Amino acid sequence: MDIFYKYKIDCSGGSLVIFYLPVSTCSDSAYYYSYTHNSNSKMGGKESKKLDSELDEATIQRLTNNTNYTPEQIQQWHQAFLRDCPSGKLSDRQFTEVYKKFYPEHEAEKYSNQVFRTFDIDNNGYIDFVEFLLAVNINSNGDVREKLGLAFDIYDINSDEKIDKKEMTKVITAIYDLLGEDNRKGENSPDNRVKKIMEKLDINDDKKITRDEFVEGCMKDDVLRQLLAPNV
């Protein structure tokens, strides 16, 4: 089973969705998904309404300096974000609900939690607009190394700038759960997959993968990059 990550931001028709999905290349789902809903949809039990809230100049300047978007584009993204998240906060529950739409019969929460943690930069329990747009920008406009860095962060669960066997196994297992993968024996077991990945990336054999090892290893090995960060 080849594991793919697909990241989709859909702002068409006045709706916005953010998700980073692993899908199997053997299924019809190996394409970009679009989950949209109209302005009358409900998020968190409350009717979504367009807000007139404006970003302050400092925030616009910060995002202009750190993304490839113009102030006008940033304002457009912000209004779309508020239509789906009127409070200006995207909760982990809302984030998980997106995954459940595509994998209703499987376990989505474990994997979505890892992606949510990666986007929630300040670890305050929700994704705000700045965090949202920074993630969008890396995926849409970042170079290869920046995108690989984002993939690294998903596996680096404790944010210590290193990935150990336990962390990688946890994420790979979460992906299996999300996809409903039942074949977990032999070469296809999470443990064996992780073992092979560690052997290729752990250059200094300290049982941990640093950011540099992850990025450089994926840059040099197309097969490995396709497995760990195929959206790059």
TrEMBL record:
CDD domains: EFh. Residues 107-142, 143-178, 189-224 form the EF-hand domain. It comes from the Eukaryota. Gene3D superfamilies: EF-hand. InterPro entries: EF-hand-dom_pair, EF_Hand_1_Ca_BS, EF_hand_dom, Recoverin. Signal peptide: none annotated. Keywords: Calcium, Metal-binding, Repeat. One of its GO terms (molecular function) is calcium ion binding. PANTHER family: CALCIUM BINDING PROTEINS, NEURONAL CALCIUM SENSOR 2. Belongs to the recoverin family. This is EF-hand domain-containing protein. It comes from Didymodactylos carnosus.
